[in-house]
Write a structure and sequence with these properties.
Blueprint (H helix, E strand, L loop, with lengths): L2 E5 L4 H12 L3 E6 L18 E4 L5 H11 L3 E4 L6 H6 L1 H22 L4 E7 L22 H20 L3 E6 L2 E2 L8 H13 L6 E3 L5 E2 L2 E2 H12 L6 E4 L5 E2 H11 L8 E3 L17 H7 L7 H18 L1
Parallel strand pairs: 1-2, 1-4, 2-3, 4-5, 5-6, 6-11, 7-10, 8-13
Antiparallel strand pairs: 9-12
Helix pairs in contact: 1-7, 2-4, 4-5, 6-8, 6-10, 8-10
Bound molecules: NADP nicotinamide-adenine-dinucleotide phosphate and ligand G4F.
């Protein structure tokens, strides 16, 4: 039975990846940082099947000892301070976790067993103020937030350990991927949750920032399959993962509200508070390499994603 270590197990992607790896017959070791309250909402249904161990990307020793104890063949680094606005209010923490944390994990692998295959969760935020449209593995980076800057470091240190130490270190440059398990502060979940509240008479408006920003949005469940595929290749590489389509935040609102028979214009209020110091205006992937080499394709359309998220929040609220 192969063993995989997944950092960020309590996050959106950690939960989907754990489900996928269990289905494929892995022993899954999830790494969670210590907190004063239980934070296992997304993985509660998996707790009988996975092992959750304490570890923190800010603590080198914890990473070394968990690799020594569980002897994985694959490590997926999904942990990060991943919310872009927080990276302006906590830039040093974001750098320590999202950038230097990658080095700590790579160092732990190098010391314990350099044959371990490593996946780094890189991001389309690295393209930032885009240098070409669409964005591929060869597009130069121009990050626009401390988060984007930290991810560029994480990407290059992964490439550097591949080249310096011949380690199997892959970097997945994933475009935005969403699901009913997305954190509430990200725009898609914020919209889906607000639509459900408004539809049930529990809220009257939705305050948002820039409605014109465009993103290449896919379904998180599809994207974790690409992570796994990257570690099954003969050689480690960089891969762009996205749908190849882009949509504005405004379109997400339009579809989400109209799904419950409402007009978003009557409920959405633009609020300066949610604008960013520097915006990423347009992201759209060129996923040709993933399609050709990994044989990876997304299975959920934009409209299906929006309606899945609204339906899920409606069902959750009705139940509670
Ligand atoms: P998420 O839901 O925010 O999950 C982040 C995870 O990292 C959580 O489990 C969090 O733990 C953990 N974490 C934070 N700081 C940590 C630390 N110091 N030590 C150990 N764990 C720590 O993010 P996601 O959407 O699943 O994304 C997974 C990864 O992909 C992230 O690296 C993200 O930056 C990257 N990414 C995401 C997208 C996307 O669209 N979702 C696109 C490209 C790249 P707590 O639960 O305790 O907070
Ligand atoms: O949902 P968002 O916060 O995601 P963002 O900034 O694109 O980052 C996400 O995707 C990245 C991949 O490209 C990941 F690496 C990262 O970890 C994260 O998962 O915002 C999307 C867009 C932005 O342009 C933002 O300005 O939505 C716009 N927006 C408009 N109003 C808003 C809001 N975003 C948020 N969070 N809240 C608003 O009220």
């Amino acid at each position: 039975m192969p063993t995989a270590v997944v950092t960020g197990i309590t996050g959106q992607d950690g939960s989907y990846l754990a489900e996928l790896l269990l289905k494929k017959g892995y022993r899954v070791i999830g790494v969670a940082r210590r907190s004063s309250t239980v934070n296992d909402e997304r993985i509660r249904h998996l707790l009988d099947d996975i092992t959750v161990v304490q570890g923190d990307l800010q603590d080198q020793g914890s990473l070394l000892s968990l690799l020594e104890e569980y002897k994985p063949t694959e490590v997926y680094n999904l942990a990060a301070q991943s919310f872009v606005p927080t990276s302006w209010s906590q830039p040093a923490l974001t750098g320590d976790v999202t950038a230097i944390g990658v080095t700590r994990l790579l160092e732990a692998i190098r010391f314990v067993n350099p044959k371990i295959r490593f996946y780094q969760a890189s991001s389309s935020e690295m393209f930032g103020k885009v240098m070409e449209v669409p964005q591929s593995e060869d597009t130069p980076f121009y990050p626009r937030s401390p988060y984007g800057v930290a991810k560029v470091y994480g990407h290059w240190i992964t490439v550097n350990y591949r080249e310096s130490f011949d380690m199997f270190a892959a970097s997945g440059i994933l475009f935005n991927h969403e699901s009913p398990r997305r954190g509430m502060e990200f725009v898609t979940r914020k919209i889906a949750n607000a639509v459900a509240h408004i539809n049930l008479g529990l809220a009257k408006e939705l305050r948002l920032g820039n409605l014109e920003a465009q993103r290449d949005w896919g379904f998180a469940g599809d994207y974790v399959e690409a992570m796994w595929l990257m570690l099954q290749q003969d050689y480690p590489d960089n891969y762009v993962i996205g749908t190849g389509e882009t949509h504005a935040v405004r379109e997400f609102c339009e579809i989400a509200f109209s799904h419950v028979g409402l007009d978003y214009k009557e409920f959405v209020v633009q609020d300066e508070k949610f604008y960013r110091p520097a915006e990423v205006d347009l992201l759209i992937s060129d996923p040709a390499k993933a399609r050709n080499q990994l044989k990876w394709e997304p299975s959920v359309s934009f409209k299906e994603l929006v309606t899945m998220m609204v339906d899920s929040d409606l069902a959750r609220l009705k139940k509670s």
